[in-house]
């Protein structure tokens, strides 16, 4: 069974850093693209970043470009999101998700499998 498990969320002050992890199991990791998404109170789910497990290509939302870095460790079937220079507006539940069709996208509707999320709270 496909499973995606996020970890690494927590409470951090503005300007601080967190590293989120997404551990995948139950599918061939190299066949999927992995994305990070977030949902803040009163807002729709927003694509943050994504990575191709096969060729390593990446994409970022403008709101996090230059601050967040996505990476993958294929041997561990794990994708990471390094978040630096965090802002209060980054506060959200962060989800990782997987889709199998080629072509990176930050549209949550294109993703097939989802984790349960991890809370990130940035205080000012």
Question: What are the key terms here?
Answer:
4-stranded antiparallel β-sheet, 7-stranded mixed β-sheet, mainly beta, 124 residues, 11 strands, 0% helix
Task: Give the secondary structure arrangement, pairings included.
Elements: E1 3-7, E2 10-13, E3 18-25, E4 33-39, E5 46-52, E6 58-60, E7 68-73, E8 78-83, E9 92-99, E10 113-114, E11 118-123
Parallel strand pairs: 2-11
Antiparallel strand pairs: 1-3, 3-8, 4-5, 4-9, 5-6, 7-8, 9-10, 9-11
Largest sheet: 7 strands, mixed
DSSP helix count? 0
- pLDDT < 50 stretches: none
This entry's quaternary arrangement is single chain
What does this structure look like?
The strands form two sheets. Strands 2, 4, 5, 6, 9, 10 and 11 form a seven-stranded mixed beta sheet that branches. Strand 7 and strand 8 form a beta hairpin. The chain has strands at 3-7, 10-13, 18-25, 33-39, 46-52, 58-60, 68-73, 78-83, 92-99, 113-114, 118-123. It is built from no helices and eleven strands. By secondary structure, it is mainly beta.
Summarize the structure.
This protein is an all-beta fold.
